[in-house]
Amino acid sequence: MSQKGDKDRKNRSKSSKKKRSLLGTVLYSFLVVILLASAVVAVVGSLYIRSLAASLPTSEEIARYEPDLSTIVYDRHNRVITKLFRQNRTWVNLEDIPVVMRNAVIAAEDSEFYKHKGVDFSAIIRAFWKNVTSGRVEQGASTITQQLARNMFLTQEKTLARKIKEAILAVRLEQTFSKEKILEMYLNVIYFGHGAWGIHSACQLYFNKEPKDLTLSEATLLAGIIKAPEYYSPKRHPKRAAIRQAYVLRRMVELGMISPQDAERAKKIQLDFQGLKKPSLMFDSAPYFISYILFDHLLPKYGSDLVYRGGLRVYTTIDLDIQRAAEEAIQNLKSEGAIVALDPYTGEILALVGGKDFKKSKFNRATQAYRQPGSAFKPFVYAAALEKGLRPIDHVFDAPLSFDNGVDENGEENIWSPGNYGGTYHGEVTILEAMVHSYNTVAVRVGQITGIQRILNLARDAGFTSPHIPADLSVALGSASITPLELASAYCIFANDGFRVQPFGIRKVTTAAGEILESFEPLKFQAVPPQITTTIRSMMEEVVRSGTGRRAKIEGYEVFGKTGTTNEYSDAWFAGGIPNMVAVVYAGNDDHASLGKAGTGGTIAAPVWHDFVSKAKEYIPIDTTFPDTSTYDVVEVQICRETGFLAGDSCPSASILMPVGTTPETVCPIHGGGSWEAAALDPNSPKLLLSPKDQETLGVTVASAPVYSIAPPEGTEEQIVVQTPYIAPPSLDRPIEMPEEPTPKPKAPLVPKIESRPKERTPEEIDKRFRELLKQYGITE
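Above: the chain's sequence. Below: its structure in token form.
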């Protein structure tokens, strides 16, 4: 029995050993497989991590990193107009960020910040365990350095590859920068919601203050936002923001950064965010002006990246107060319109408004709308006439006239018959009176006497650059197509003694560090003799005192200006100035629809001009009178507006400036009690000027001119309607002056010829072009 039992035991032992040997083999093999697999995974993982690392910025490249910075645009007093950005950010040095803000961020986001080397492995384990036990993601493990790496170089996608890249970059950041520099970069790079990137933008957005002025309550609220800016937005979710703020305060107490009492006081403070609004890539302040300098200069010169990411400082010429006054004034128009204001001595743009609502229409009517100025162009016609030798006191017929303009496309006779507003005529009038009341037929006659080329030359010298100025007599009535900015620039010659100025809107552009990239100085030169421009200005002052521009009058100030109205009342203008400022108001519909029969420059544009300038003058030094002009050989003289002689007590008088040696020496013999004999002997007495058309109509030639009469010979087809004829004694010959070089018979269409007209683009076309430019420069609305 015992031998049999021993044998069984031996057999069982052998069997057990075999089983153990098999199990050991299996386990060993499994272990080998695991080790080999681990080695493979380690090698593959290592290679994968190395490939990821190779695709990331090196430490040297990290050291050269420059974040996107907002370009800031300032007004002439260095007040911020707007910011241009893809990420709204202004860099702040760490020493300008209060300790309470630094501590709040560390308490909220990374309490071990000063201990780890970029990645906090203990925090990763804690977060893993917390998330596993809770069944959901409750806690993150990204350090401040990792968050900085993600915001500087990576996307927000939640993948393993991104987390590995983040860790690699965090280590490199720690190897490249000090903890203080990393914290500074973090506070300037991180997103705080509502378009605010960095601590400066956040402070401006939420509290309208500088970072250095933050309180504990404000700092902890901002620090709480960082985790989820939209979720903890104090504007949209104030309760969530308050709960998160309380958490940050509690963490600061636990870390010994503040006392419990400080925390309680901070929680009780009610913060107001009613003024909070989301910054936009587009511009809420002075939008038409910003659009003008952006697409006219900044983007073409510097490119989108530098303008929207380079932190440029753009110092402009506008005054924000004057700009706002213009934006308010234009709302008084029932139609669309534009307002431009310039410093006439420098050409600096003080205000520029291209429409009533930039959000509805990007069409900048101040710079893009080519419109006919109508009678607002007449001062340049009369200035050219004065250059030729005509005077404000000389007489011209205000009467109907017609020009044969060939045949039209249907073979029918084409007659151009310019007429006056209202269809009334006044016979023989002084050039001054014609200017004051804007008589069209006088302007045409003076244009014919002066010569079209002389008018065009003066207009170009004054600053008109439009290609749409017709070389025919219709230009005397303002048929050129020009922009409001162009007209304002040209009108400066009447305020600055004849100097042409180049309008500009930027004074200088610098880097964020203050390095000047470019600067602009006024460009001007003497374009028209000062005797001419001061005389015209004084004539336009009479326009405001007693003529079509009466509604632009500002008590206590010398004001000059001229109204303009176009055919069918489609455009209304007032252009003029006071000492130190020239302004233009334009009113009109984009589709050229009529403004109505009351849609004249005097009734629509002049009141808006008055309201704007009256307010604008409060913001810049404005003299009440223009500078002394005695050095220009001009003299102030009181003349009879109707006859042109020196004014007597009963004359309708006007005070104007005239070149020395051209003024009459005798008193008006009609109203003022002067003698006809003295008037006849006065070498500077007013002259009756006959245009070539008058010569043709009256049958008068240069050789048979001395007929003292203002009525045409009997039997002529065209009768000149005379309201107040001047009848001199029969023994006196009326002085009649003929043009030096009779102008050839013109072809004078009422409007510019088809080929000279600008393409009339619709607002929809302008908006489309605006969006094309945005796309071209990589900008989104």
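The two ends are 102 Å apart (CA to CA).
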